[in-house]
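Sequence in, structure out.
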Amino acid sequence: MASTIRLVTYNIHKCRGWDRRVSPERIARVLASLDADCIALQEVVDGSAVERPNQAREICEALGSGYKAVFGRNRDLRGADYGNATLTRLPVARSENYNITWKHREPRGCLRSDLRLGNGALLHVFNVHLGTSYMERRAQGPLLLSDRMLNHAAHTGPRVILGDFNEWMRGLTSELMAEQFRKIHLRQHQRKRGSFPGPLPVLELDHIYYDEQLELVRFELVRTRLSLVASDHLPLLAEFQIKSG
């Protein structure tokens, strides 16, 4: 027996597009046609505590179809909360936001959501946003792969790690992840090998890694007229077949 799951990763840049307009509704329109079961968003603003928009909630409401949001706060942004959000229409069994901040650099996080599949098994989805400096990522890579995070003994289901790794050349994080997981290489699926910046995507900052229990059946760099203006990154879509015993 086998089932499939469709996942998306998308750095939404606070919902600010190339036209400088902030529009969660436009981000939702980019995502609507993808029909994803789970969407990992980075650079998300939750200003509900200070009577400002909650971008994850607004995107969920615009998408409809039973999406709910898990939010991982990484830092303050002018009084609002700022971090990663995972939107899903699958039941969430558990979630945890890991602090992967290095020294005095910008606070960073990895948001884990354990999704319950139709057969009762769990899929562990790790929504990542790494730092922009070389030394920062060298510290964050081993931290991600530690027994406290990706390799925790409680994670018995298949794992997918996706998000903005800020690693456009092969660095330590890429090397360590490749030793343990399969990776979707953009250049194997299309002519354009990058996801940033949107209009001229020359840097491969956004990555998807996955366990061997998963089989990739579809991949797409979502490059539409709308996605080119909605954010400074382009979304990645991956559909996996999940094999059961």
